[in-house]
TrEMBL record:
Its EC number is 3.8.1.2. InterPro entries: 2-HAD, HAD-like_sf, HAD-SF_hydro_IA, HAD_sf, S-2-haloacid_dehalogenase. Transmembrane segments: none annotated. SUPFAM superfamilies: HAD-like. GO terms for molecular function: (S)-2-haloacid dehalogenase activity. Pfam families: Hydrolase (PF00702). Coiled coil: none annotated. It comes from the Bacteria. This is 2-haloacid dehalogenase.
């Protein structure tokens, strides 16, 4: 993919733009109870249960986290407290961007409308978006779509709201499992993988790789 100029650049937010700190939040609560190896396993299980919790019908993200924390605690032999899960949920609005994000976004925002499609709650997302340092044409949430990514319904809601087709956008994410696999299946031909180290490369899904958002302007010829 070389210098494609889309109608919109669409983004995943948490992990791609916002520094996703769910593991750190869990470490703060449970690190005193678990040795490093067990804590690493706890974090791995926690990520897996969060994904499993969003694959069905939509439910509020505080319930997603409550259930995921409870299941992770049970699997790892740790006492579960509802207030711990709530405290993790309440940290989300405080998260800021990766250091490379504001300058890279600001450059492309001058030429191409930016859009976020996030597995977020309406009450939280704008606290994070306001820290990104660039204007966004639209911000869509799982709560609005009544579905979480990687479900197609979330992406289809975004297309309907923008009045565009998959081939009109460039979708940018650091995650294959949440974004780029579904984007591929839905016919989004232009995809960017931001290699934040969350997941291994998978060239099957036909993307352009960048190490961070500073590389995005070059993808669209800016």
């Amino acid at each position: 993919m070389t210098k494609f100029r889309p109608k919109y650049i669409t983004f995943d937010c948490y992990g791609t733009l916002t520094n996703f700190q769910m593991a750190e939040a869990a470490q703060k609560i449970y690190g005193g109870q678990l040795d490093p190896a067990r804590m690493a396993q706890f974090v791995k299980n926690f990520a897996a249960y969060r994904l499993d919790e969003i694959l069905g019908d939509w439910k509020p993200y505080n319930e997603v986290l409550h259930n995921a924390v409870e299941r992770t605690c049970r699997r790892n032999g740790v006492a579960f407290r509802a207030e711990d899960a709530r405290s993790i949920y309440e940290t989300v609005p405080s998260w800021g961007p990766h250091r490379d994000v504001p300058a890279g976004l600001a450059k492309v925002a001058k030429e191409i409308p930016l859009v976020i499609l996030s597995n977020a709650m309406n009450e939280q997302i704008m606290h994070n978006v306001e820290k990104l340092g660039a204007p966004f044409h639209a911000v869509f949430t799982a709560q609005q779509a009544n579905a979480y990514k990687p479900r197609f319904k979330a992406f289809e809601y975004m297309f309907d709201m923008l009045g565009c087709n998959p081939e009109d956008v460039l979708h940018c994410s650091s995650s294959f499992r949440y974004d780029l696999m579904s984007a591929y299946d839905l016919g989004i031909k232009h995809k960017v993988w931001v290699n934040r180290g969350h997941e291994p490369a998978n060239p099957y899904y036909e993307y352009t790789e960048i190490k961070d958002i500073s590389g995005l302007p070059g993808v669209v010829g800016l």
